């Protein structure tokens, strides 16, 4: 509460910085007593090296150099990233530009801090073909209206990430709209015309409509497109857009005409589909999707299965994925950029699944001569992830033996309960009586027994009528065993794929690309790969950055084309700028075709290990390979 009062008083001084203001006037505006106001002024002055607020006779005003102290009172909820979004929002809302000093005051930051933020804004604008122009301390956003709307869409999706489905008007939109009511009306319109729209697409359409209405209200209209794209849009989707046009006109007195209507048509056609996946299967899919798209998708998925050593994708996955690829190609054809607000989260929370999606994006790009952005890659990752979540075949199961005492087949109750409970983690391959078990020579990971076994055996003993407590004991044992098994396998692979000659320190290069070329060339010179390996690593990096926002990057080739599988380590005393991040640990992975199955284990384990700040911090200071090897193999994951 006190902090809020201080900010309230500070705002009053900022709006009266030239003439000053009396205590009486502040009392009238705030309802705070004169004594309390003096205390707040003392608190504000105590935070700066000279009096931030000065007094002359009855008048209080900001000191002459007040701007250089504004960063002291920076808004607590505005991180550097949030300030970037705030600046972009101001630029989009003010077509005539913004005064830099007024903007700094609005954000409670110094002009030098603002200059640093502006550099971040410029970097963010690059992918939108927009640029900042500064003339006499006035900052202008320059570029096409359609690109500004793309930027606004990015802003709203990013702001709204934590609550994916928007429920209230975001800060950027000046007018207040009933979002839930707009969504409900749109759902009625789409249902009326039998058009299928999933939750992600509906959210995109709602955001698009909000931006369209806001920009029209502010006087920023789109000109009519040429040629008329309605010639290529299905009649049902045109009818949907006409209904939306009428709804917006009647409800908000905003008129979507000419170029605005053309843009709405394009947007709806890229987010809505007459194909509802729930009615499509492997047998009838050719009624909805062209043969070329089906065959191309089959070919790409076979390559994914081969490279990542996966079991075959099932028919349900294939059907949904073909529909997704068909919609994706329609978006690309119409130069429409899908926005996925969860893109960064997916990339860093599910790195292997995301990597598979990058592989698919590259295959599609090569076949069709297109480039897919990280949002589209993330949507592909959704599908891959959902398949892994439901598929037990691609999960590493433990093999187990169940040992029982023969008595009227009573053991079958326990066995059925165990198989049902642990079906996705344990494959109980054998159920043996104690007599058969003593004679058997079998390979397995785990023994579950109703009877005590010789002390030479490691096993879990349960009762003939298994309890919930025993189920939990088995679950804990399985987790510990699987964790240890992964660590042993990783340690074996590290020792096989890495050695002292693959440990490097401090390659001095100006850029990420130059560093990658130098690093890969060093590995090539040691005989681990051919020259083509460099271009394969750079192609993978171009598709999506391999930095993990924690000072670590794990670049690797798109294909298993190394001569010998390897893991090379590069530690930098001075971090290098890796796209948006500073990186001081670079781990280069190369896999030969015959050992491609190992990539999943290595990649997953390294990412999980290096997600721990303490491990990253320790690795950054290491100077010898033996110490590095000990560090990455001694940590439990």
Provide an overview of this structure.
This protein has 637 residues and is α/β, with parallel strands linked by helices. It is built from 24 helices and 14 strands. It has a four-stranded parallel beta sheet with strand order 8-7-9-10. A four-stranded mixed beta sheet has the order 11-13-14-12. It has a three-stranded antiparallel beta sheet with strand order 1-3-2. The model has no long low-confidence stretch (mean pLDDT 86).
Outline:
With 637 residues, the chain is of the alpha/beta class. The chain has helices at residues 2-15, 23-30, 34-46, 80-93, 100-106, 111-125, 145-159, 179-192, 199-217, 235-252, 259-271, 291-308, 315-333, 343-349, 351-368, 374-390, 411-421, 434-439, 468-497, 512-525, 532-543, 598-609, 613-620, 625-634, and strands at residues 21-22, 53-56, 59-62, 98-99, 131-135, 138-142, 398-404, 426-433, 446-449, 460-461, 503-505, 552-553, 566-578, 581-590.
Task: Using brief descriptors, characterize the structure shown.
alpha/beta, four-stranded mixed sheet, 637 residues, four-stranded parallel sheet
From the alpha carbons, calculate the radius of gyration and give it in angstroms. Answer: 31 Å
Count of runs of 4 or more consecutive helical residues:
24
How much helical structure, as a percent, in the residues? 40-55%
- Measured between the Cα atoms of the first and last residue, the distance is 44 Å
* Biggest sheet statistics: 4 strands, parallel
What is the total tally of β strands? 14
Query: What is the arithmetic mean of pLDDT?
Result: 86
- What ranges have pLDDT less than 50 throughout 5 or more consecutive residues? none
Q: Give the overall silhouette.
A: globular
Q: Hey, roughly how much beta strand do the residues contain?
A: 5-15%
The neighbouring-strand order within the major sheet is 8-7-9-10
Q: Strand pairing plus helix content: what structural class?
A: alpha/beta
């Amino acid at each position: 509460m006190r902090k809020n009062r201080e900010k309230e008083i500070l705002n009053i001084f900022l709006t009266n910085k030239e003439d000053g203001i009396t205590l009486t006037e502040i009392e009238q505006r705030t309802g705070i007593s004169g004594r309390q106001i003096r205390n707040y002024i003392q608190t504000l002055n105590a935070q700066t090296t000279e009096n931030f607020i000065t007094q002359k006779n009855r008048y209080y005003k900001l000191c002459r150099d007040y701007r250089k102290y504004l960063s002291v009172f920076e808004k607590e909820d505005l991180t550097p990233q949030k300030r970037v979004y705030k600046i972009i929002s101001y630029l989009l809302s003010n077509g005539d530009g913004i005064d830099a000093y007024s903007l700094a005051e609005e954000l409670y930051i110094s002009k030098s801090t603002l200059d640093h933020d502006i550099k971040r804004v410029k970097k963010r604008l690059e992918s939108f073909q927009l640029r900042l122009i500064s003339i006499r301390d006035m900052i202008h956003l320059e570029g096409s209206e359609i690109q500004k709307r793309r930027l606004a869409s990015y802003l709203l999706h990013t702001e709204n990430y934590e609550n994916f489905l928007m429920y209230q008007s975001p800060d950027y939109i000046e007018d207040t709209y009933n979002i839930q009511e707009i969504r409900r009306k749109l759902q009625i319109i789409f249902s009326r015309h039998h058009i299928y729209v999933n939750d992600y697409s509906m959210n995109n359409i709602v955001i698009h409509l909000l931006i369209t209405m806001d920009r029209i209200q502010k006087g920023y209209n789109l000109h009519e497109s040429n040629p008329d794209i309605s010639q290529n849009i299905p009649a049902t989707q045109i009818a949907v857009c006409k209904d939306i046009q009428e709804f917006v006109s009647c409800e908000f007195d905003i008129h979507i005409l000419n170029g605005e209507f053309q843009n709405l048509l394009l947007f709806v056609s890229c987010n809505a589909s007459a194909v509802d996946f729930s009615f499509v299967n492997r047998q009838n899919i050719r009624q909805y999707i062209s043969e070329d798209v089906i065959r191309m998708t089959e070919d790409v998925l076979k390559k994914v299965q081969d490279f990542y050593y996966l079991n075959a994708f099932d028919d349900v996955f294939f059907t949904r994925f073909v529909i997704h690829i068909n919609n994706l190609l329609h978006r690309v054809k119409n130069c429409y950029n899908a926005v996925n607000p969860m893109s960064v989260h997916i990339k860093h929370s599910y790195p292997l699944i995301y990597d598979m999606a990058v592989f698919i994006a590259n295959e599609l790009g090569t076949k069709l001569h297109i480039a897919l952005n990280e949002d589209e890659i993330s949507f592909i990752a959704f599908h891959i992830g959902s398949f892994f979540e439901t598929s037990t075949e691609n999960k590493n199961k433990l093999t187990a033996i169940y040992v029982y005492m023969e008595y009227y087949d009573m053991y079958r109750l326990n066995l059925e309960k165990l198989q049902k409970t642990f079906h996705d983690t344990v494959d109980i391959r054998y159920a043996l009586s104690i007599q058969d078990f003593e004679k058997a020579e079998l390979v397995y990971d785990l023994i579950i027994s109703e009877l005590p076994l010789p002390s030479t055996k490691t096993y879990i003993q349960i009762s003939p009528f298994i309890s919930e407590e025993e189920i939990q004991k088995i679950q804990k044992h399985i987790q510990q065993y699987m964790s240890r098994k992964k660590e042993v396998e990783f340690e074996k692979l590290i020792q096989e794929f890495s050695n002292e000659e693959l440990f490097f320190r401090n390659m001095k290069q100006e850029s990420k690309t130059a560093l990658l070329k130098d690093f890969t060339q060093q590995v090539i010179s040691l005989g681990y790969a051919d020259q083509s390996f460099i271009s394969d690593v750079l192609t993978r990096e171009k598709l999506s950055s391999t930095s993990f926002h924690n000072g670590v990057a794990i670049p690797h080739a798109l294909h298993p084309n190394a001569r010998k599988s390897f893991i090379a380590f590069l530690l930098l005393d001075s971090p290098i700028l890796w796209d948006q991040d500073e990186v001081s640990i670079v781990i280069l992975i190369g896999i030969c075709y015959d050992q491609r199955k190992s990539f999943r284990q290595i990649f997953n384990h390294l990412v999980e290990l290096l997600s721990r700040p303490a491990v990253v911090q320790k690795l950054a200071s290491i100077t010898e390979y033996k110490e590095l090897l000990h560090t990455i193999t001694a940590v439990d994951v």
